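Help wanted!
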Amino acid sequence: MKQKSPALSRVFNGLVFLFLYLPIVVLIIFSFNDSKSRTVWSGFSFHWYTELFHDDEILSAFSTTLTVSVLASVIATILGTAAAIGFFSMKRRPRHLLMTINNIPMTNADIITGVSLMLLFVFTGNLLGFSLGFGTLLVAHITFNIPYVILAVMPKLRQLDPNLGEAALDLGATPWQAFWKVLMPELRPGIFNGLLIAFTLSIDDFVISYFTAGSEVSTLAMQIYAMTRKRISPEVNALSTILFLTVLILLIIVNLREVRQQQAKDRQLRALHKDAAK
Amino acid sequence: MKTKTPAIPYVVWMAIFVVIPLFLIVVYAFTNFDGHFTLENFSNIDVFLQVFGNSLWLAFIATVICLLIAYPFAYLLAQEGPIFRKVAMLFIMLPMWMNFLLRTYAWMSILENNGFLNQFLGLFGIAPLHLINTDGAVVLGMVYNFLPFMILPIFSVIEKLDNRYIEAAQDLGANRRDTFRRVIFPLSLPGVLSGVMMVFIPSISTFAISKLLGGGLSFLLGDLIEMQFLGSAYNPHLGSAISLMMLALVVIAMLIMNRFGDGEEGAVIM
Amino acid sequence: MKKITAICLALLMLLPLFACGQKEENVVNVYNWGEYIDESIFDDFEAQTGIRVNYNTFASNEMLYSTLKSGGSSYDVVIPSDYMIARMIDENMLLPLDFSQIPNMANMDAQYLHLEYDPQQLYTVPYMWGVTGIIYNTTMVDQPITSWMDLFNTDLTGQVLMFDNPRDAIGIALKALGYSFNTTNQEEISQAADLLIQQKEKGQVQAYVMDQIFDKMINNEAAIGTYYAGDYLTMSEENPDLAFCIPSEGANLFVDAMCVPTCCENYDNAMAFINFMCQNDIVLRNCDEIGYSTPSATALEEMDPEMAENPVAYPPADVLDTCEVYGGLPSSTLSFYDHEWIRICLAKVKVH
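Answered by r_m:
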């Protein structure tokens, strides 16, 4: 596709990036502010970072968020992949019905998912004697994660060569071996995608956690929301900066690895071509 | 390998955690505090029509703005080289990894009367603009938070567009504008629809954005529902009734959009 | 093989339920107003008793009520205001206290006991009391402030902060119109709601806030607002331009008290915490931090005279006489309040 006007398009895209990152930059700058103000600069200081590390509530909320996100995304990936495989083997009608129900948490507004789950947990909690807590939070996160995993794995299932599995079985593999050694490698990109999306959604979630976490546990988003209802301390800015830098560094590392892997592959290819040319 | 059993645990899970909760909402919507069947929760519709209208309007504006920004952005980006595209996509997604509330909170510091923006304008002698606690601030918050969700699907589709379609159109004599209008745009519709859904639905149901940037002056559907469950006017029956109405709205919106799409929109974001 | 897989998956699904069962050893779950305690006392409490404090905050009595009523939460100690306590006792949401575990109750001034909300003093131990009033920035407000009506008659646009809860907001409008805080007359309540709606439509209101008012008043974001006397003292420490006024029609005199909801799971820890909060040194630290007034007679004796004689924190008797306490309201009035509150929330600025 030909490029229209590179300068104009670059300017436009640049402005969009500016829009996306301006608030984050402001957040980061004021995390180093000497005074409590989030808007008036009065000098450089690491004060808020030390405050942050002494704030037990935020630190425990952060650890809860990480724990729930990791657990929920892993469990969701396992259950979701299994479900996708099962759905794929069904006839059109039942699969269509199940996929429609599966789409409900995805297309539903967060608040309805959160509120409906809260009603369920309170109802059964009164019967069985448990209250909202880490368990209900985890279940809620798994529930809204699984549809995305299924959505990520299904296309890969469709792209599968249907004969691969049969071929493996014919060659003497047990069904488990056929699955693990033949199908899984094909599905792996989709599974990994699903895992990543589930994890992102769990970390980002606020509304569903708000209704299902109860009084004993709190996620980072809930803590921040509670803080914005009171006097806001620039600790939140310090937290944002740390989160941002962490994610940035992770992304850079992951992509450097990919680039290096790609370069290694290219080198291999070139070596092969050289051999072939000889 | 055809086997249905791996799906059984999830089917059970869905029954318990997706179907039954929705059933509970229906039950709550049609009962009152005494447990009797009643339609009274639906009787104050006129009051809620106002909230519905307001939320619909703001969500609509936010979605349109997102579309107007995201489509050109995705289209222009798709024409860049592969490494640039990949890096750009990562930087679009990066804010999504910081929490949604942090992103909204960031705008508070900018939009306040003595906030960053007004201080900046003050340097040029412009009087402070009253920006925060307005509908505009809420729409801005929606656009900011959900723009990546509009960019990703559109970009994903345009990037994967088969170049041969475009070449064929050009071979058949179409100029650049016609090529866009009659080949590229229609083919990109699944991405557009996916993006629209992923912006419209969260926008219509948010309450955190309206609480942080609206200051109680921008009262949306999400605020109304939250108020009935954990907020200042406890009535889960009324809240369930309103949730049910919002659910109906979402279903109608989806049905309308499904007429234009082919049902595979969700897969577009992968 | 398939069966084993299915069983494994089923067990995996049950994993979260095990997490449900895990309870923290020796903790007390406290639910209090925001900015209403000196949080450093939690370490002292843990050192003294070995009990960890899990502390959460709410923004208004109504929010506390919703959280407790919707179930699923398990707070051990909550600190609502008088009228909400009356409502909760009425609806059997509180457990009676075991005063044998709260010897420090003896420190309390008798005039704060056996009040209308808990006449037999079975369910509560008073925590703090205070009055509401108008807080304004003297550099941004020209007119003299003496009446609740000044919030509604002001020329300022986008500068007024109002209470973000139905009882306080409608109450102020009722007082401005000359009615009682506790009226059950729906006509009067409607008029009050209309006044608030007009205030919004004229563009006078900047926001409906609770604790967000701190940042706004301190940073000169808003010119005038209404909140609690103790918070004014905290704010004026950081922004000396602020002034406080108890309006002529009379403000709200409130008592916040510690009580134990029925969902409590650590009753003895709750008793220990309540008793701890009544210790003189803890009372003084809390008062110092939040600026509110203590009902503890012994603590008042030990208090720094500058604080104990502060007319904002401890107004003279004639001023207190003009103030009215919120009483309980019948449930029909309460649902009418909810209905009017939604009407108020829906109001928007009318562009002319």
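OP: Thanks! One thing I noticed: The mean pLDDT of chain C is 90.
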